[in-house]
Amino acid sequence: MEDFLTASQAAKLLQLHVKRVQALARAGNLPAVRVGRKWLFRRSQLEGHLGRESHKGPGRRADGRRADVEISGRNQFRGKVAGVAFGGVMAEVRVMVDGNEIAAIITRSSVERLGIKVGDEVVAIVKATDVMIGKP
Hints:
alpha+beta, CATH 2.40.50.100, 4-stranded antiparallel β-sheet, elongated
């Protein structure tokens, strides 16, 4: 018998919220079948949809390392982490870019998940609708 996944198992595989997986299935954007009130997903179809084999984790290459991701934000600055300050839920990450410091306030869990520490090379991505220019 083929390996079927529930919506919550598919959500875990795709690293999405279960409601998002159900909405994608309902819209026909994710291969699934409806059985009664439940959605079922063929593992092979989901993996084919993702273009990866099952032994790779989400966002990972065959060797297990994280895959590079293209980002729509055009303002990307490579730099080194100069400091990390933790608060309760949030953290401040300071990045030195060509002698200038950029500060980002992100969740503490994101810092921990990414393993960000002083000295790491990172990319600061600035996505904003307004950019102000000043002239001395």
